Amino acid sequence: MPEFKKRIETGLEQFAYFIYRNRFITLLIMLMILVFLAANATRLHSNTSIEGLLHDEDPILLDYNTFRDQFGREELIVIAIKTPDIFNMAFLERLKALHDELSDKVPLTEKISSLINARHTYGNQDELIVRDLFDPWPTSLTDLEIIKKRVLGTPAYLHTLISEDGTYTTLLIQTRQFGQSGEPDVAMDGFQDTRESMNEQHENAKSAPYLTDEENSMIVEAVNGIIKKYDAPDFKIFLAGSPSVTHALKIALLRDMTFFTTLSIIAISIFLFFMFRRVSGVIIPLVIVVFSLVSTFGTMALSHAVIKTPFTVLPSFLLTVGVGDSVHVLVYFFRFFNKTGDKEKAIAHALSHCGLAIILTSITTAGGLLSFVTAEIAPVADLGLFAAIGVMLALLYTIILLPTLLAIFPMKVKTVTREQTMPHISERILKGIGNIATNRAGGVIVISTIILIVSIAGITKIRFFHNIVQWFPENDPIRISTETIDRDLKGSISLEVVVDAGKENGIYDPLFLKKLDETAQKLETYASGDLFVGKAWSITTILKEINKALHGNNDEYYTLPETRELTAQELLLFESSGSEDMADFTDSQYEKARLIIKVPAIDAMQYSEFINLVSDHLKKVFPDEKITTTGMMAILFKTIHNLIKSMVKSYVIALVVTTILMILLIGRIRLGLLSMIPNIFPIVVMLGLMGWLSIPMDMFSILVGSIAIGIVVDDTVHFMHNFKRFSDQTGDVKQAILKTLLNTGPAMLVTSLVLSTGFFMFMFSSMTNLFNFGLLTGITILIALLADFLLGPALLAMAGKKF
Fold first, then answer.
1. Model-level pTM?
2. Is 517 contained in some domain?
3. In the sheet where 168-175 sits, what is the strand order?
4. How many domains does the chain contain in total?
């Protein structure tokens, strides 16, 4: 192994000479590669949708796609309006104007529902009439009183179009499930189509692209532009629903991505300037990391990947991690260059002394990140892959482009004093740390063990959490609106259930309908913790309206028809009325019945028990029918379920991969295993802090462990790489530790400060998920530095020459 490493170091030295002598050609080639990737990077798109959290082949997503192909997009844009008096002519005229403008100006909408066009079903002698509630428009107070009585007497309106206290009304916007380029050839809204045409519709739907993130944003922005004109103290508007939340999340994350990238560049520049006191020492590393970042995005575009929710952390991560490689090269380069004035030899010296360590650290970092590739949360898996690619691109640019730029960039030899390169106080601190670690190794290990025990106790308190709305600050409009609608209109998302009778006209069965209706009524009484059912409705709601209308509009007949024949007749009459509402609740063959269960947007962990309860109840009530639970609630529940599985899997994989790499890199099994203790220590402490501080494990905090394992092992690699060299030279463990700290310690300190500062920048975010991510990752890196300075040397000192 020593001979193998020597050959690599010699090869890197010769490679440096080659780069120096062909610097201009090398620069041209690297620029051509960059331009190609940068041109592709402009084609990147984003996808922050909730369904985008799952892999394309996930069964829950496949069920959801089948559902929306049949019933349309169930994600509604919810506009709630608060007013002292809904049944006021001035208010209603304003509501109608808003409804009409939304209908005329908002693109890609399937349907807009409000009191203005609410379904009013009634009988006139033997005729069933279905028309809009405000048809004709009221012209007197008497007309308004009649409409008010109708609204308050229609159960279908409660908690959908009007609140229980009558102070809120809503407009519900259903967008198309297909984008502008994805409309099926056969219209999807014809309810009375034949079986053959319906089959053709579904075949077209399968191949059509769904509404894109950009199209969703276009819709929400159009809605926002319109409602701003109508918002007033007596017409207070709240905008919520998953399309609105998705858009708000996208805007916030893209804004934060730009902001944190800028902050990271500023922080890195400051650290680099104070470390090297040279313009070249600032510009060259920044060029390397920016090239790496642009190339990563270009690679994403070439792979047809999209920017997803967790990708907010990618630019800052690559900037801070990438600059660490450059710092180690520049430290060796400037130290040798200032002594000799020979730039060519200085470049060769730098690459030969730290090139191998940089390659090893990049491999271990990428290995930690690749543990996410197996994650069942699609954005996390994608982030792991492309962050690893970004790390390797940063390595490529560091090994090839950085020496090229050093060769081309004009610079002068600086006569640098000892105090400038390493202030005496820093040397004393590092010596002091080394003496503590070696002379009081037992004490360091005992204290570390106590910290580990306390941390493990904290780990047992970790809770998993996934509620996108609560990522936003309490005063954010989207959070205020969602919480208001959840409170006063009893929910903003839904669990969708499809009961498939398995045969044509199967839902005509009175017993089937009775069981479906009783299930809905039972569900409306459910409440547990923060979760409650605001409303549950299905085709039985329409059937009861029809039955009442055909019996002289008598409330006593707000019941289900008693026979199959009567059910068929009533449904036929409803179809003949011209209303298309039935298509929202069943298919054209009357085989499938849709049950909508409206709930508030809360922590997805709380959905688990409820979904299982609903599924178990329906399977018991409908033993011979196929039950499918889908919708936003089901997707959110699957996300948190995947989150738990992914955390355990990714942490184990990252630990195993990193351990194997460390053993291979160091060349000794026992020393490789020993070196992992300072790397595991900060991860355990971080997880313990999460438990004790009640920081939840969510889609972002799950990233900390595997990212940190990949990052913190870098310093260990540099430390062990130099420790072995000095140990072989001196034959004395303590002396080797002190020499390693004095030679490698400053670079380890600076890179750790740069890394932690880069992640601490996320604490400026108003989004709690990003704040927690930055806090935890930054703390983990600093704890890892202390572990490398104290715990690692203490373990080596205790082990002596056994390793």
1. 0.84
2. no
3. 109-113, 168-175, 76-82, 236-240
4. 1
